[in-house]
């Protein structure tokens, strides 16, 4: 069996007004040959598992296109057209030589007019392949879906971008099920539900209650005879899409009543626990003060307001200002995007003392530039390298405080390797503040470390009342009484 696979992926944050142009996409004809985007390790694991699973079935994976762009603003019209044209060409070229197609999509990829690119890709695939060849879509858990999108596929599966092991399992499942579909062994019926429930991405974690119990219920449903998959999609509110809201899909073998019954039970479990799903965020001043007093170190402070993994420009200054103003001692912060500051520091050279404005260059929703007194301690990289050109500044704070600040030319999701490359020993710090929260909890949150989540203003803040939504269906919880 020959299985075509396409991975077409971007998370669109419509509150980021900088368009994502076609040159922002990394394109390849070899799936998972290397991570095209450092932020998509879960997707890479998914691809690798499908390749291995197909080999076990003595089938062949036919990669037709992998096009991945970093999370950011909507795709420009030219980028949308280029992606659709290239995908259409590839599907047509392979239509008569493959037996099935698997599409891996974010489910929240939009153009500058707010139209769903994912929906267009699905329509194209179905029109070219017709109904003779199985079409399976693997959606990220951030997907904003509607029933029409589900109906275009034979199966819709979901995976968590943060969970490498879970993504691998879904890759195996996708290959197993597409073989059974191709042989005519199964004819899945799907039940779809979308709830008027708008969730910030970091809120749904299956390691915390009540999400843990709800995910366990979904898993129990999957163990029932004739049930193939139960997927929950918390959704992506920052897409500001008419499809926004938590959704779920239950797939069962020709049993419409079974799928509908399980979907209703799962919907009820989620809806009745909606208040408990939302967790409060500790005030940033409180977090910093407590981190300064604690004997545990380092305290990892996750700032959700300006998260590059969710499409923020990462140039906000709320966290920087708090650390400086409160006189944080032995602190580190990563990473602020400010190309002008990077250029200034590189020109001045290591050891130079500077006074200049940092951050807040273009997007003032996350704070204005902050004047800092800093010493240039280390310079890293060249344009195009993993971290790009980056610098470490030792910034003076009030009351004798000091903060080691990483400044980059482009949005980078902070990793321990970035801190290490710039000479910052995480274990020796009293506190480490990260301008990221959604995915970095697992990366930095070792058992011995205390992890605290806070938020500042910015286009990924979990405080949804911060936003002026235009397309999100209303009423919707927690914005409205529902």
Q: What Rg, in angstroms, do the CA atoms define?
A: 23 Å
Q: State which percent range the strand residues make up.
A: 15-25%
Spell out the helices and strands N to C: EEHEHEHEHEHEHEEHHHEHEHEEEEHEHE
Low-confidence stretches: 33-39
The total strand number stands at 17
How far is the N terminus from the C terminus?
49 Å
The chain-level mean pLDDT equals 91
Q: Roughly how much helix do the residues carry, as a percent range?
A: 25-40%
The secondary-structure class comes to: alpha/beta
Largest sheet, in brief, is:
8 strands, mixed
The largest beta-sheet arranges its strands as: 12-13-14-15-11-16-10-17
Query: Which descriptor suits the 3D outline?
Result: globular
Number of helices: 13
Keywords:
alpha/beta; 6-stranded mixed β-sheet; globular
Can you offer a commentary on this structure?
With 482 residues, this protein is α/β, with parallel strands linked by helices. Helices cover 30% and strands 23% of the residues. It has helices spanning 41-56, 77-94, 117-129, 147-151, 164-182, 211-222, 256-272, 274-277, 284-293, 318-325, 339-348, 416-421, 440-444; strands spanning 2-9, 26-28, 60-68, 100-105, 135-140, 155-159, 188-194, 227-233, 247-253, 299-303, 331-337, 353-358, 370-380, 390-396, 402-408, 431-434, 450-454. It has an eight-stranded mixed β-sheet with strand order 12-13-14-15-11-16-10-17. α6 (211-222) packs antiparallel against α7. It is globular and about 70 Å long. It starts with a strand and ends in a 28-residue tail after the last strand.
